[in-house]
Structures are given as structure tokens and as C-alpha cells.
Write a structure and sequence with these properties.
Number of domains: 4
CATH topology of the largest domain: Rossmann fold
Structural class: alpha/beta
Largest sheet: 7 strands, mixed
Number of helices: 19
CATH architecture of the largest domain: 3-Layer(aba) Sandwich
Length: about 575
């Protein structure tokens, strides 16, 4: 039933509505009429299809608000007005003004402000870098793998990733202070590592910086792989913390044992070690960012770099030191493309007569071609790649971005093995909780595990052997991540053969998964026994994660979060679960 208000009440309600503010006007001027020393860059914005840029200036005194400079030739005035309305509605700013200026005025103001924003004394730079290093030290002490500075407007957030979880540091930084610290860090870039001479927050820039920290009483050198990216209203600066300890081989420890310590299952470690020591074809570590791909490759290279063997790497940038190996950083000179830089480095590398080669990461056609040429030349080649699964690595290599021919990479012997990496939180052995003791919490949706999940888990294994994370933690884990003791690897290993390569060449990836599954799951009625077996060949990362869950190492919610829910997984196996 519809109800209508009397006309008089409708009129009263309209009268109560707040008046709509008219959009700010846009004025064309020859002079901005404000002292340059009171202004700083906030960000630049693309205004129209003709690539006209509007420069947003933030007043450092906090009084007059924002000043938007747009070129007089910009045709999309509606876009300027829309941006002005958006900025005027932001409670952090006291006002906003727009000026359309001539190109010469815009260039003059931009150059002056850039110079003013980058002007610093050696003493100020040293103090700023020390302050930046203190933040890195705290991140390192907390076990963080990543450190981020997110700047939006006047707000600055310092974030860290610990055991896969993003947390906020309680640091209170102004925008000026945060940018001062980041510029000081960028100025310490390693030789040939940065993508530009000075840090510009309105551009995509990256570099590598080494920082000395303390690990207990001992000094430790770590490398920060820094990436600066503009975002609406500011910029995001991400730093990956990479340990710079020199990796040397323990002559008394087999490579397979080292791989088991990383987290591979014993039969997986044996197959990777066997193919690496034979030294033919190529090996790939694939997975998402921060999944341990480089750690695996460095461990293999450390085992192969023995006296009498020449190992070389081409990396962008070098992420660690490997004893006995020649490591080269890609140097993109002015006027040179990445592909030309890779070709130059690879040509010089081949003249060095290498026994095995590490290509740091295949992220574009330049690195992809170097990987192809290295393996084609008969050298054992190792590399890393971002891909969602071991079999999916072939789809990624043939994608538009990398563009390798599928008939080449599916040739027998070209790729010897592909390992898909996924890091999962390992339960604290001192305070983990038996799953069946948590039944009272199953009714709480926030718990993330209910009676439906318990019933499905019963089809995979015995619930009595499964444990949950203790959210309160204990004295052994509370200081870092309550209920968690680091992370463990759930890896899927793919060993290509004629049958699977033929399917991949026909792009029948789902059929490949079915073939691999049939090699470890002979009868669906024996699913529990197959998953409980400590044999991981042909299994996916999820199946290895389930095995570790049934050993009491991983929370079942972690397996579901990292891979997929038990229901769709059982459905893919063809198991009836009602």
C-alpha cells in the first residue's frame, strides 16, 4: 500500500532540505598570487583525453586550503568542476580554489615547487634517514615482511604485514614528515637500482635501498625493495624487507633436506633436487607476492654454486647474496628499453660460460625472452613467476604481457618442474585448541567455521586430529601474532610429461588437473586415506595444505581462506556430500 504526504507537508519537507552549494568557479589568471614557499604538491590529475594535467597544491600553513592549477588549454571544464566539488566536500580542507593558468605559468610554478620540496641540507637528510631506519628496525623486530606508507590528503598510515596479516603501526607522521623520510631513503638507493634520480610522488618509481639493523647483539643488513605509486589524494609507498645474509652451502646437507626445511614434502623435495642436480631444462617457482618463491630459488642456487661450477644471475634487483655465484643487476640506461638491457646483460652472461642461470623474475617480455634464450641454449635455468597454480604458469608465460610461444615452452624437457607456493600460518604448538572443543563457537558467524564446515571436513579426514588458532595466544606467540608460530609452505609440484604437455598445448588446463588427480586418487571412496598419505606428488597446494591441517599444523579456516571452501573442492572431486 502506498502512502502520500499531504501537499503542505511535502512543501515543508522540501523547505527543510539543505541548499545545494553552487560549484566553485574557474578563473583564468596570469599569476597565482600566492607565495610559493607556502605551497607544496598534493598530486597531479589527468583532466581530459588530450592529457591536460591539473596540479593540486596543498597550502602548508593550513589556512587558505587547496589551490588547483589547470592549463588554460584544458577542454574538459566539467572534470575540473567535478574535482573541485569533491575537494570542497572534504572536511579536512578549509577551502578550495581553482585557477586556469597559461602553460608557462604552470611550468614555472611546477619547477619552483619541485625544487623547494626537494631542497634539504645534509644534516636534515641524515636525521630523516635515521628516523626512517628506526621505523624499519621496528618492522624488522616485529617479524614484518612488508612496510607501507599510505598518504591520502593530510593522513599518513604506516602499515606492516606480519605472518600474512596487515597491521597499523601507531606512528604519528605528518605528510611533510613522511615524504621527507621517504625522500631521504630514496636518496640512499643502491647504484643502478632506482628508476629515477629523485623521488617524485606523482610518478611510478622503484628502487632498492640497503639498511643496517640490529638482530639482538648482532648487526644485520637488509634490503628494501621500494615501490612508490600515486593514488587519489596522495601516494602509496611499499617496501619489501629482504634479508641480506650471505647464503653458503652446507656441504654435509643434501639439497632435498634444505627444501624439506623450507616446507616442501619429502617426495617433492627429492624430485626438485634430482632435476636440479641433473642440470637440464628449467625450473619455475610460482605464486603470489611474498609466497617464498625467491627463497626457494636462492636455496637451490646455494646448493649448485660449488667449486668447479659457474652460476650467474640476472636480477632486477638483486635480492640477496649467494656465496660462489656471480649476480648481476639489470641496468636500464637512459634511452634504453628493458628488453635491450636484458639482451645486453644476457649476451655478456653467455660469454662467461655459465653452468646454470637464475633469471630473477619473469614479469614482462624482456625477462621472458631471456628465460627462453637461456633454456634454449642448454643451460639449467631457474626463475620465478606470478601465477595462480603450477599448471597456470604455462598460461601466464603465453599471456600478452610475456608472450612466449606455447609450442616452445611445451616442448619435452624445456621445463623440468614447476612449484606453486602458498604460505599458510602455522599454529602455535603451545596454545592451539582442539577443533571439537570449539563447538560452542560454531553458531557465531564471525568465528568463520560452523557445523556445515565440520561435516565437510569429516569427509576429508578425522576432525579429532584438527586444531584451531587460539586468538588470545600465549607467552610463546603473543608478542608477534597470537596463536601463530610463523608460516609454513603448502606447495604443489608439477612435473610435466608427454600426456600433460599435449593437453597444455591444446589449452585444456582443466583436463590436466583431472589427469594429475587420477594419479593420486584412485577411488573416491578412499579419499580420506589418499589425503592422509604423506605422498604429495601430483597433488595441488590445497591438498598439501589439507594434509598439514590433518597433522594439526594449520587451522582449517586458513586452508579455506588461502584456497577455497571444502564444498566446491569436494564437488570438483566428484564427491557427494549432500
Amino acid at each position: 500500500m502506498n502512502f502520500h504526504l499531504p501537499f503542505s507537508k511535502q512543501r515543508d519537507r522540501r523547505a527543510q532540505r539543505p541548499a545545494v552549494k553552487p560549484p566553485p568557479t574557474v578563473t583564468v589568471v596570469e599569476d597565482i598570487g600566492r607565495p610559493l614557499d607556502t605551497l607544496r604538491f598534493a598530486y597531479s590529475s589527468l583532466m581530459d583525453k588530450h592529457t591536460s594535467m591539473a596540479v593540486l597544491l596543498d597550502d602548508k600553513t593550513g589556512g587558505p586550503g587547496l589551490l588547483l592549477l589547470a592549463p588554460i588549454s584544458a577542454t574538459d571544464e566539467m572534470a575540473i568542476r567535478t574535482l573541485l566539488v569533491y575537494l570542497s566536500a572534504d572536511a579536512r580542507y578549509t577551502g578550495v580554489e581553482a585557477l586556469r593558468v597559461t602553460p608557462s605559468v604552470l611550468a614555472f610554478v611546477s619547477e619552483k615547487l619541485k625544487h623547494a620540496n626537494q631542497l634539504a641540507t645534509p644534516e636534515a637528510d641524515k636525521e630523516a634517514f635515521n628516523a626512517f631506519r628506526e621505523i624499519v628496525q621496528r618492522a624488522f623486530d616485529s617479524g614484518a615482511s612488508d612496510l607501507r606508507f599510505s598518504v591520502v590528503g593530510h593522513n599518513v598510515k604506516v602499515l606492516v604485514r606480519i605472518d600474512g596479516e596487515i597491521r597499523r603501526f601507531p606512528d604519528s607522521l605528518t605528510r611533510d614528515r613522511a615524504e621527507q623520510l621517504l625522500r631521504a631513503a630514496f636518496a640512499k638507493s643502491e647504484d643502478n637500482a632506482n628508476s629515477g634520480s629523485q623521488l617524485e610522488f606523482n610518478q611510478y618509481m622503484n628502487t632498492a635501498v640497503s639498511v643496517n639493523v640490529q638482530e639482538g647483539p648482532h648487526p644485520r643488513r637488509i634490503q628494501l625493495r621500494m615501490q612508490s605509486s600515486p593514488q587519489r589524494g596522495g601516494h602509496l609507498n611499499a617496501c619489501r624487507l629482504l634479508a641480506q645474509q650471505e647464503r653458503s652451502r652446507d656441504l654435509h646437507k643434501p639439497l632435498a633436506e634444505t627444501l624439506v626445511e623450507i616446507g616442501f614434502m619429502p617426495d617433492q623435495a627429492y624430485e626438485i633436487a634430482l632435476r636440479s642436480l641433473q642440470g637440464s631444462g628449467a625450473g619455475l617457482s610460482v605464486g603470489e607476492t611474498g609466497s617464498g618463491k625467491t627463497n626457494t630459488m636462492y636455496s637451490i642456487c646455494s646448493a649448485l654454486a660449488v667449486p668447479g661450477k659457474a652460476g650467474h644471475s640476472v636480477e632486477d634487483p638483486v635480492e640477496g647474496t649467494i656465496f660462489g655465484m656471480n649476480q648481476h643487476t639489470i641496468q636500464v640506461r637512459e634511452g634504453q628499453t628493458r628488453r635491450q638491457a636484458y639482451e645486453e646483460a644476457f649476451t655478456a652472461l653467455l660469454r662467461s660460460d655459465p653452468d646454470f642461470i637464475l633469471i630473477g623474475e619473469i614479469r614482462d617480455d624482456a625477462a621472458g625472452q631471456a628465460f627462453l634464450d637461456s633454456s634454449d641454449a642448454g643451460h639449467y635455468t631457474l626463475s620465478t613467476l606470478h601465477a595462480e597454480s603450477a599448471v597456470g604458469a604455462y598460461r601466464r608465460l603465453t599471456s600478452r604481457l610475456i608472450g612466449l610461444p606455447i609450442e616452445v615452452i611445451t616442448a619435452p624437457g624445456f621445463i623440468a618442474w614447476v612449484a606453486h607456493h602458498k604460505l599458510l600460518q602455522r599454529l602455535c604448538t603451545h596454545c592451539k585448541l582442539p577443533l571439537l572443543r570449539c563447538k560452542r563457537q560454531f553458531a557465531d558467524p564471525a568465528f568463520g567455521f560452523g557445523r556445515t564446515e565440520l561435516r565437510l571436513l569429516g569427509l576429508l579426514g578425522e576432525p579429532e586430529s584438527v586444531f584451531m588458532r587460539n586468538p588470545e595466544g600465549c607467552a610463546h606467540c603473543r608478542q608477534r601474532t597470537p596463536g601463530v608460530q610463523g608460516r609454513t609452505l603448502a606447495a604443489g609440484l608439477f612435473l610435466p610429461d608427454d600426456e600433460t604437455l599435449e593437453l597444455i598445448q591444446a589449452q585444456r588446463y582443466a583436463s590436466v588437473q583431472q589427469v594429475l588427480r587420477s594419479r593420486w586418487l584412485f577411488d573416491r571412496k578412499c579419499l580420506k586415506a589418499a589425503l592422509a598419505a604423506d605422498k604429495a606428488l601430483y597433488k595441488s597446494g590445497m591438498e598439501v595444505g589439507i594434509w598439514k591441517m590433518l597433522q594439526g599444523e594449520i587451522d582449517p579456516r586458513e586452508v579455506i581462506s588461502a584456497f577455497r571452501h571444502f564444498g566446491p573442492y569436494l564437488q570438483a572431486l566428484g564427491v557427494e556430500y549432500g
